[in-house]
Write a structure and sequence with these properties.
Elements lengths: L1 H20 L8 H10 L16 H34 L11 H15 L9 H21 E2 L2 E2 L1 H25 L3 H12 L7 H20 L1 H7 L3 H6 L4 H23 L5 H13 L3 H25 L6 H22 L3
Amino acid sequence: MLRILILCAVLGAALTADLALEPSDIPVRLSDVGRVLLSHTPLLHDWVAPPVSPIAEPIVWELRAPRAMMAALVGCLLAIAGVAFQGLLMNPLADPYTVGVSAGAAVGAALAELLGWSGHWLGFGQTASAFFFAMAAIVLVYNLARIGGRVSAQTFLLAGVVVGTFLWSLIPLTMVLARRADALNRIIYYLIGSLQGATWSRVILLLPFVAIGLILMQMLARELNLMTLGEESAAHLGVEIERFKIKVLVIGSLMTAAAVSVSGIIGFVGLVVPHIARRLVGPDHRRVLGVAAILGATLVVISDTAARVALGEMPVGVITSLIGAPFFCLLLRREMAKPS
């Protein structure tokens, strides 16, 4: 419990720094940030004194706060999806990026942007398109990897790399077809991962995916724990293996699609964070899921702050890739060094 409180405090500090340090032509003090946040807090807004600065209000509430919250929610989604895929496939190299789900979601989001579907279906048009293509990708990967009615982790990852590479080739095609400058810019952001253009409506859109995804994965945490014993042992203990795989793949794909639809591909968060979470609280997925959600939020918030403050509005996906790629190489070398 103490570790959870410490991690929450670190996340709170990261969010505060993100709000206070974001570059702006008009400097906004930390006290201004606090007053703006209090002014929008129910039951506390009447206590704010002195009055909120009219200059600080739009900068903090309309620009900084939604971006910080969206960074946190995207980090949660990707981290939980990473825990799901690694627990399901029993492979430390698995995450939404490596199994092809992120690429499928990016194709769907880019196509929705190209066709102007973003505002359809009560604002969920882009997310729905991303989820459809993410599911199409995971179904294709699943069927490619399925041999004799079963799916092995190694074959699944290899199929994910192949399908992901093919889907990546479709994204430049959407860029060629994009005729509107704003659509082209958004598609580019899906390639590199960016939190620019964050709004409260996008934050509200992500909230149910975080809540439902975390609840559903917590309900499956016992089965994920049993899967660490091996598929045969898990089956003997009552896990319906193939049905369980489908459940986890659908939930993981939905969470990935929601994140990609608003931020593009922010790679390696789902790879790095689950390993750190397991180091902190052990292998029990009932604890790993919650810790990973907090760590994922913290990682993306800190990465976005560094990308904007220190590197002049560099997309956050660049920072997470710079962190994650060496980590991936280290894991790969460790896996290769294991005796077969």
